[in-house]
Amino acid sequence: METALWLNFNHDQVQMVGISNTNNQNIISNFVEENGLTFPILFDSGSSGGVQGGDTYDLYYMPNDGSPYPRDFIIDQGGVIAYANNEIDTEWMLTVIYDLLNTTNGLVGDINQDNIINILDIISLINFILGSEIPSTDETMLSDLNQDEIINILDVVMLVNLILN
Ligand SMILES: [Ca+2]
Ligand SMILES: [Ca+2]
Predict the structure, then answer these.
(1) In the chain, count of helices (H) and strands (E)?
(2) What's the domain range around 40?
(3) Ligand located closest to 156 CA
(4) Is residue 134 one of the residues assigned to a domain?
(5) Ligand 2 centre from 11 Cα, in Å?
(6) Residues measured by CB to lie within 5 Å of ligand 2, the ion
(7) What separation in Å is there between the alpha carbon of 127 and the centre of ligand 2?
(8) In a domain, 106, yes or no
């Protein structure tokens, strides 16, 4: 989550928050430290301070189900839930995020704009990075996969992952 989602995207484009099911600061701090997290963690109010969770946890808790409550959500630009899952599925989350970004930006990663993301787009991207081709304004936007306003090897890595997935 930290590296695949939070660190990969410009935070103007994609915001990520964790929601703790406890208000026990020691438990939260240990979790943050163990996992090297840098995204904000929110409290679930109403927690007793143990690990039983607070008001929101209680609302969504489903006893006797495999996993007791949905853990991961993606909320779109209009405030509508676009994804909810009770198991971690980073690849699926990335696909949903790209779909949401693409509704306003064109097909990010499709640098030659032929509606397919494939090896030809990787070749164009590498040529831009090496300076052997100069990208147009559109191509610059489509080449910046992680939306950090720099075109570099990180965008190549994301494009390769997008094609392989
Ligand atoms: Ca293409
Ligand atoms: Ca970039």
Answers:
(1) 6, 4
(2) 6-100
(3) 2
(4) yes
(5) 12
(6) 144, 146, 148, 150, 155
(7) 15
(8) no
Which among 101, 117, 109, 113 is positioned nearest to 143, based on CA atoms?
A: 109
Structural domain includes residue 35? yes
Task: Kindly state whether residues 55 and 91 are assigned to the same domain.
Answer: yes
The pLDDT assigned to 103 comes to 61
Mean pLDDT by 10 residues, the chain (165 residues): 79 84 81 91 73 71 63 87 86 87 72 89 96 91 89 94 85
**CATH number of domain containing 58:** 3.40.30.10
pTM (two decimals): 0.58
Q: Which ligand is the nearest neighbour of the Cα of 158?
A: 2
Residue 112 maps to a domain: no
- Residue 93 sits at φ, ψ, to 5 deg, of -60, -40
* Torsion angles phi and psi, residue 47, rounded to 5: -65, 145
Structural domains in the chain (count): 2
Question: CA–CA separation, 139 vs 137, rounded Å?
Answer: 5
pLDDT, residue 141, reads: 87
